[in-house]
Amino acid sequence: MKRIVLTETASLKKANYTNVVQAHQSNLYRYALNFLGSSDDARDIVQDVFEKLWINVDQIEEVKVKSWLFTCTHNAMLNFIKRRARIDYSNSIHLTAGSQVDSFEFESKEIIERTVSMLPPLQKSIILMRDLEGYSYEEIGTMLNLNPSQVKVYLFRARVKVKNQLKTVHFFA
User: Fold this and answer.
1) Alpha carbons 125 and 28: distance in angstroms, whole number
2) pLDDT digit string, tens, across residues 68-123
3) Do 45 and 52 form a contact (C-beta atoms < 8 A)?
């Protein structure tokens, strides 16, 4: 992982913007891609977040850049999902206990991705940050404005939901 070298002041300056982008763009993109499932949408979200960073660069403290970026990305994805749901509700995919799922049609990875995509946004973000990105409970809490205990509870609940949904899919296979 690259280290960000910032100026001696506490706030992030425009001169350091490129360093921040290079250090965090792949992590933000991967997080958005796993959350949204669309490469184009993920790129758009990350680009919007870095645009907001550029606009607010003088107001963000250097020690809070990473948290600010992930919080902004999380909120932008939630807003995007709400807009998309209003525009095209009929294209949403739901796997429920009553669905007939042909187990030969999906690879196990696709089933897990679809199961994770059904989680509530906060649980989905936490499970992606913890299990795919490897962030600590404290880091996730800082990014999502939760305490570490809340992160653990949401993560546990998300894992239970995924486990139960996978059992249901396997039962109908």
Assistant:
1) 12
2) 999 999 999 988 887 776 655 444 444 444 444 444 444 667 777 888 888 999 99
3) no
Domain count, the chain: 2
User: Are 46 and 72 in contact, with CB atoms under 8 Å apart?
Assistant: no
108 and 162 assigned to the same domain: yes
Residue with tokens 């490897």: 134
Best CA proximity match to 79, nearest among 116, 111, 104, 49: 49
Phi-psi region of 83 (alpha: psi -120 to 50; beta: other; left: phi over 0): alpha
Is residue 37 located within the same domain as residue 78? yes
Task: Name the region of 120 (left: φ>0; alpha: ψ -120 to 50; beta: rest).
Answer: beta
pTM: 0.62
| Residue 4 forms part of a structural domain | no
Domain that holds residue 100: 95-173
